[in-house]
Amino acid sequence: MSAQDHPEDSPLAEALRRQVVAGADRPAIELHAPGGFLRLDRARLWDAVERMTACLSQRGMRSGDRLAWLGLNHPLQIVALFACARLGAIFMPLNFRLAVAELQQVLDDAAPRWLVHDDSHAEVARVLQGAEVLLQEALMRAPDVPSPATTVDPVDGDTPVLLVYTSGTTGRARGALHSQSALLANAAASEWAHGFQSNDVVLSVLPLFHVGGLCIQTLPAVLAGVPVVLQPRFDPGTWLSEVAAGQVTLSLLVPATLRAVIDHPGWSAWSPGRLRGVMTGSSTVPLHYLQAFHGRGVPVGQVYGSTETGPVSVVLRLSDAVARAGETGWPHPGAQLRLIDEHGQDVPTGQTGEVCLRADNLMLGYWRGGAQGVEGLGDGWFHSGDLGCLAADGCLRIVGRAKDMIISGGENIYPAEIENLLLCLPGVQECAVVGVPDVRWGETPVAAIVATPGAGLTPDAVMEHLRERIARFKLPRRVVFLDALPKSALGKVQKASLQARLAPPVAVSGGA
After folding, report:
1. By the 8 A CB rule, do 454 and 427 touch?
2. pLDDT for 54 beyond 90
3. Residues 428 and 449 sit within 8 Å (Cβ to Cβ)
4. Is 131 helix (H, G, I), strand (E, B) or coil?
5. What is the mean pLDDT of residues 337-352?
6. What are phi and psi of 214, to 5 degrees?
7. 264, pLDDT greater than 70
8. Across the beta sheet with 202-204, what order do the strands follow?
9. How buried is 183 (Cβ within 10 angstroms: 0-12 exposed, 13-18 middle, 19+ buried)?
10. Strand duo 36-41 + 330-331: pairing
């Protein structure tokens, strides 16, 4: 069936169909993998969507069914998302970095009908229980002329289409459920954030199991008609060479991958080619990383948000990236932003408060399973748990997580401020600052550092570096060197675990 035949009931699929009608032979997605290349123009992408829709329909997919996906980045994940959208089903990408027990916990919670995997995750998929297991290529085995998408219930903008589980750094992972309209609103916010141009090419290297990899650039680019070069997984050397080849204009890196690129031996001789900017997504990004890219003529903008917010919420666009380096930016035109105190009241400009967001690209709510529906947002605002302050011109600056804030002797200390300074010190590979109990001060900061091998870094050198740059009350009371920091499957430092490890032993009173 030709994409020109009739509009789609699914708003998400209809947005893709319009791109096909506008230029069927224009490039859509290329997979650049070690084993070769796969190129899909818009017509071939649409054909793949129709073929997978027919295959899933023949297998009995109905509205509300979940399709879990376990695999490295591949165009078929994008195809599966659109096929699910047409059938009113829900695409559910799985974090392949999770342990088997953690994956099983997610499957038990979401109860998908199918678990699709690639070759590299076949062994793990066979161990998991509760869903029919399929190799990803099996979803392309359908008649040459696919049948129209059929679904029991009508599909519209409110229909859920994407279920993404949070990393669960502080407990059991929870699934954020997004509607088709929310994904389209997020794509519009991304288009505003990036200012997509007719000659843009996006290099996508972050995992598509996370909204960062899927929804900040990749899916919005496809919906805007911007070609995407997809890599199975991030490799700093490959990223550098791909950009230097001169095709790529935009990419997305998180702080850990920014650091990996800067530390790569090829960085010093690297040419950015046509790269007009890099976006990064995180609450706080070390200024040192931003300055390294800015020094090469590549502005690094920021996208602030979370799994629950789409994630595009607050953006430092490329045009402001150098002048406002280290700040978070402004909410996109369709978003509302509030900073509130512990009583839920708005804080004055310049004062610190919790970041709260409301927009059309927020999730429907947290998955509660089947007929139980979702756990919604209550007052309609997403309370992020992040602390920030607003400049007079409305620019947001994130200062850290509310739960990470250290209160020492009545003074508020934000670990991110200390961590960013530590990362500017040669020899500091990674670091984290946490508060530990103190009899006199209530809490005191402790710095945990992973040093570059052979750097010869000492606690005295660390403290001397900090004394020149921050107030005395913010100085860590201890500097501890570790071989590695405890992290979640998404690479986030598990500060609760680190606090437990660094806390002083509790004194036990002896009895007579």
Report:
1. no
2. yes
3. yes
4. coil
5. 96
6. -85, -45
7. yes
8. 36-41, 27-33, 228-230, 202-204, 250-252, 277-280, 300-304, 314-316, 330-331
9. buried
10. unpaired
